[in-house]
Amino acid sequence: MIKTDILIIGAGPTGLFTVFEAGLLKLKCHLIDALPQPGGQCAEIYPKKPIYDIPAFPEVLAGDLVNNLMEQIKPFEPGFTLGERAEDIEKLEDGSFIVTTNKGTKHHAPIVAIAGGLGSFEPRKPPIPNLANYEDRGVTYMIKDPEQYRGKHVVIAGGGDSALDWSIFLANVAAEVTLVHRRNEFRGALDSVDKVKELKNLGKINLITPAEIVEVDGETKLESVLIRKNDEAKEEILLEVDYFIPLFGLSPKLGPIANWGLEIEKNAIKVDNSLDYQTNIPGIYAIGDVNTYPGKLKLILCGFHEATLMCQSAYQRIFPDKKYVMKYTTVGGVTGFDGSKKEAPKAVVKAID
Length: 353
Known about the structure:
This protein is of the alpha/beta class. It has helices spanning 13-24, 40-44, 62-73, 161-170, 190-201, 300-318, 329-332, 346-352; strands spanning 2-3, 6-9, 29-33, 50-51, 60-61, 79-82, 86-91, 97-101, 106-109, 111-114, 120-123, 153-157, 176-180, 206-208, 211-217, 224-229, 236-240, 243-246, 250-253, 264-265, 268-270, 284-286, 291-292, 334-335, 341-342.
């Protein structure tokens, strides 16, 4: 039995930052994640993709953001159960919880914080015969390391932000990038659409619309795709490729958490955002993209804010007779559980005093 103060389900950016905020309150955290490493989508789906809306970082790669968060929480010595999915939950008479994973690992905590992002993901796959035969042999549904495509011939299918963004990025990496979309209009950001059209005019992206990939072929790995134009002539184009990347989005699913008796709305967990992001079950909170409330924005920085308020509420729930006086880290510094301390500069402390 693993015991902790706050059990965090989901080790993405919001879950990781929760460890820091809890650590400032001297609360110990343990995280469960179905992925084999911390970081959530940022580590698993787009570690090399830049993020632009993290405060104080004009631009930061998703993977670097995860690495920085891991470094930030190191003094608070979080525990991890990775490669296992939170399966069942039991509420005990004292109000605490036992959460069991799909591999039978049990965790006991007075507080459960669900920070599972959008849940588990399955890629939306186009209905192409034999497509599965080439998965991991030239067909992939997400880009983890762009260097894998350096000097290669790549076909991307899709009309959303991911398809546009990766076409733009790989235009300077791959030998040839072809973007195929079934309509002439795109669903992504207008500046990305303009950039793709600009790169097309410069000869850096082959843009084929309206069209669809209808066949894939190859001996032991993917060697070619057949593109059919969506026009009256139904023109077909046979293209030799090294990689085919359908980017039609991911289907999020809450998984077993959906059966825990939580109030669910449109595949998200309803919370009270007027105070602490608690669910309809006292002691269980939901923070980050997994929750919903009026005015909800699914941004990493919003998850950080929600984690901060949640930890304050969790402290009061665990220690109802204690009064916590918040101290700014610029004044009190950061003290790890191992006794290590990052002191606030004396000049700053004096100025604030």
